[in-house]
Every structure is written in C-alpha cells, then in structure tokens.
Amino acid sequence: MAFELPKLPFAPDALMPFISAETIEYHYGKHHQAYVNNLNGLVPGTAFENADLETIIKEADGPVFNNGAQVWNHTFYFESFSKTGKRTPDGILANAIRDSFGSFDVFREQFTKSAAGLFGSGWAWLVKNPDGKLAIVQESNAGNPLKKGLKPILTCDVWEHAYYIDYRNRRPDYIKSFWEIIDWEIIANRYK
Ligand code: MN
What we know:
By secondary structure, the protein is mainly α. It has helices at 21-42, 53-59, 62-78, 91-101, 104-117, 164-167, 171-181, 184-191, and strands spanning 122-128, 134-140, 151-157.
C-alpha cells in the first residue's frame, strides 16, 4: 500500500507569525511530500514493500531509511503544533521533566542548546528512556531515536528548509518561535 502525506491538523496560516504559510507550503507541501513520493518509489520490490514506517526506521538503512524516517519525523513534528493549545506542560509530563532536568526552564534551555548546536541538518529530540526518564538527543540528517529503542516525545527540525524562508540563517530565532507553537497536551499524550 502506498504511503500518503497525512493531512495537517491546522490551516497553513495557523502558526503565524511564528511559522509562515509560505514555510508550511514548502516544508509540508513540498519537502514532506517529496519524502513520501521518494519512499513510494523506493520500496516496491524490497523487503519493505508492505512494512510500516516504524519497521522501516528500525530495520532499513540507506535511502529507504532516510526517506521513511523523514516521512515519520515530519508528521511527528507538524503534529506537535496548534494555533491555540496548552503552552506549558502539566500533569505527569511536567513531573517527568522536573525529575529529569530539574525544571521546565532548565529543560527548555538544554533542548534549545541541543537544537541550536546541532551541526548541519538534523533533529533535536526529547525522548523517554525505557526507565521512564526523559533525555535530549541529537540526530543528524533523518536520524530517529526509535532506532535506538527510545520513545520520541518531541522534536525540533533544524534542517535549514524548516526556517530559511522565515528566519534566513537565524536558527536561534526559529527555535525561540518553536516554543510558542507547541501544544503540550499533544506532547503529554505521547509520554503516557
Ligand atoms: Mn524538515
């Protein structure tokens, strides 16, 4: 069965002024779509012809992994945002952040540093370890923590295509905006 580009859970202009409709048009409409198209072109005739994306991330390498992981990563990224959502975590996720990092502010500072400092293209991730503790990991290119047995909770895409239209080379300004559009109710549901 062919992979499909999932529908965005918000209108293209919903994240303005933090992420423009033009960025969504390119990042979602062209880049995310291209990974879907590439994957659909790659898997026929391979062991991954009927595999789901999680299996592809865990077991594939090369172009099948790269495109499959990028499809999953972008869906996960876009589905973290909303126009009006809970802008700080509460409940068990807030407790886990406190237990793992000391406070939400310390977590945000460490995650920001990780995303800003990632060399080249990639993704900063908040992950849940098998013991329930949270950690921040950097992944280059299409890297996804599922491959290491870690559960992804939140991610920030720091490929230039994620911010170049709105912020040019200013990755730190994009990351500042990233915090303004996260819907923590969605993120908390991933931690459960
Ligand atoms: Mn991207």
